[in-house]
Amino acid sequence: MSRRNAAVKREVLPDPVYNSTIVTKVINQVMQDGKKGIAQTIVYNAMKTASAKVNDEALNTLITAIENIKPKLETKARRVGGANYQVPMEVSADRQQTLAIRWLVMCARKRNERGMEAKLGAEIVDAFNQAGGAVKKRDDMHRQAEANKAFAHYRW
Q1: Residue 5, domain member (yes or no)
Q2: What's the CA gap between 5 and 25, in Å, rounded?
Q3: 19: phi > 0 → left, psi -120 to 50 → alpha, else beta; which?
Q4: Which residues, listed in sequence order, are joined to residue 75 by a DSSP beta bridge?
Q5: pLDDT, tens digit, for every residue of 55-81?
């Protein structure tokens, strides 16, 4: 990583169906081997099934699920005087969204259902209802930050 210049943030284009950049980011996270059309089909069908289960609009369901997963605190390793400390830090808004989408897709892939559409749809419903693997991951991260609160003064 360059010490001189910060990396330039690239803006993603909104998706064609819902006109939302969040949906585009989910599609890009689901995509494997550059097969964007397949990823779009998976995400759109998963959103339809999830919205049918919770009786809400598809885009609102996904946004609420991602909001429920977003972490507020995380720990970062800091080396102070020869010892490594896990220092709790607040998470920026961009990183919150990125982590939430990453965890949503990762936990969906680990589920024991048949087909990625069903897995992602079920994970969206679970996140909407404050349950599931992605919400557990967020809670674990918050718990670790809370446990290391004593080292918060090492933050810089």
Answers
A1: no
A2: 25
A3: left
A4: 88
A5: 999 999 999 999 999 999 999 888 888
Domain coverage including residue 146: 21-154
Q: Give the other-Cβ count within 10 Å of 137's Cβ.
A: 19
C-alpha span between 30 and 43 (Å, rounded): 8
152 CB-near residues (< 8 Å, 6+ apart): 87, 88
Q: At residue 1, does pLDDT exceed 80?
A: no
For residue 127, give the nearest of 69, 73, 71 by alpha carbon. 69
Q: pLDDT tens digits for 11-60?
A: 999 999 999 999 999 999 999 999 999 999 999 999 999 999 999 999 99
Cα–Cα separations (whole angstroms), residue 136 to 99, 115, 140: 13, 22, 6
What's the CATH number where 61 sits?
1.10.455.10
